[in-house]
## 1
Amino acid sequence: MRLPEVAGRRLARLATDAVVRRPALWRVFRPLLRAQFDGLAPVWDRIVSPGHLDALLAALEGVAPPRRALDLGTGTGAAAVAVAERFPEAEMIGIDLSPAMVEVATAKLTDELRGRVRFRVGDAAALPVEDGSCELVTLANMIPFPDELARVLAPGGTLVVAFSRGAETPIYVASERLRDDLAERGFADFAEFFAGPGTALRARRS
Ligand SMILES: C[S@@+](CC[C@H](N)C(=O)[O-])C[C@H]1O[C@@H](n2cnc3c(N)ncnc32)[C@H](O)[C@@H]1O
């Protein structure tokens, strides 16, 4: 692994651990991660491993079709497109902090998906989305902000938080920590999914 790659992974891990413990620290890490992922946008699709969304897709089995779904930290949009294909009636919004990622994701949209999938720049810590307006929210390899997840999910809605390489993923939050943070905010019915090295936690907003 090259030095900038090692440094990038360390930054992602440091930011995740710090922000999960103290969400107020996000404003310190925000510009750093934004610059990091802007730089990675042109190569992101080449560096993700095949099957990197398998655990997330496994967690979607049996989930009721949403009217509106949100993919946070969408990057180049792979999870957003996968969710949209799984639920052909759903309106899908992919949100990412990095304008360069959003640009790549938008350029990849097929004519078929363009009518109901859109990507926009935004921060998962302060989402430009109305309260209780989404029946499904997904995060793949992304720092969760539990207060915002609880705010935007409709009662009974589903949350899936996935990490492509489990605890080896640079942006990773242990399932016990996630469960505690989410349970405090009214989430329930937790279930874990595993696919290759990937893990996913599914929860319902009660
Ligand atoms: C590790 S990448 C994952 C991309 C994609 N979900 C995937 O698995 O291929 C993390 C992405 O989350 C974005 N991100 C990080 N913090 C964010 C935040 N607070 N709000 C929105 N996007 C964020 C980054 O810009 C980056 O594109």
## 2
Amino acid sequence: MKKTKSGIYGLNSLLDGGIIENTATVVIGAAGAGKTTFALQYIMRGMEVGDDGVFITLDENQEQIIKEAVDMGWVDILEYIKNGKLVFIDASAEQFSNFIRKELPSFVQQWGGTKSRIVIDPLTPVIWAQPDKYVQRELISFLFKELRHVGTVVCTLEEHGAGDLTGPETVIPMYMADCVVHLKYSTKGEGVERKLKVVKCRRSRHSERAHDYKILPGVGISIHHKKRESTGKTEVAEKVLAEFRERMKDLPKSTRIRLNKALTGLKDSDYETIDPNIFLSDIVEEYQG
Ligand SMILES: Nc1ncnc2c1ncn2[C@@H]1O[C@H](COP(=O)(O)OP(=O)(O)OP(=O)(O)O)[C@@H](O)[C@H]1O
Ligand SMILES: [Mg+2]
């Protein structure tokens, strides 16, 4: 399973290395949260490693987005567009929905295996263009399924509700996506508060906390870690493993092998909110009698 460097400083460690290739990630955030910045940063990082880039803007002005990138200091974008490494597609939600239904499969078939990063910023109008929830679900599911063949997808979603991810236009894409990142942006009180949280990430461990982030000129989104998340296996995890080996002697061999492998993969951070003794007792209890 290969992981792609996201280009968002500090995010890779929250996703255990990066975004899994050929998956679909949804980035949700209110106005000004940094969705377009995230999308641009992700695509620009791809340019550095030779990926192809497709930036689909819906009901948004593509000139405006390119200007934002240049203002951010990412002037190379003009060169990438000129030499065809990065393609912008500017469409209305209706045009794009028709494209998904009628032309996407043949587009995907003709693509021919090059690694690419695909961005849709924002996906929200596609949902709105389709009032029937069942059809929304079918359309988004089909879109993700097809695009995963072509590359690694990042879609942004506007957050219109109370900021708790329950808005009707966010729920369906959240289910369909492999990975969901919430850019929680609050303007209550005197200043602004920005927090990034990984809501889900299929097939991977991920951070379960909210992390402060900033948007810095020239840099883009940068997550501010107060301390580095421990990646290495350390004291607690090894102690639990040793204790497990001690207590597991009576287990069936296959179970012993499976659990031994599982516990070897755990880190100290996994035990942060667990009492190792109770944890082991629960395992033993499961196989007794
Ligand atoms: N060139 C820049 N220099 C410094 N900060 C910037 C720059 N460009 C953007 N930002 C910061 O990023 C914020 C908006 O980011 P962005 O446009 O990515 O948000 P968004 O979530 O896409 O918003 P919208 O919902 O309006 O599309 C700005 O409000 C600003 O704080
Ligand atoms: Mg935007």
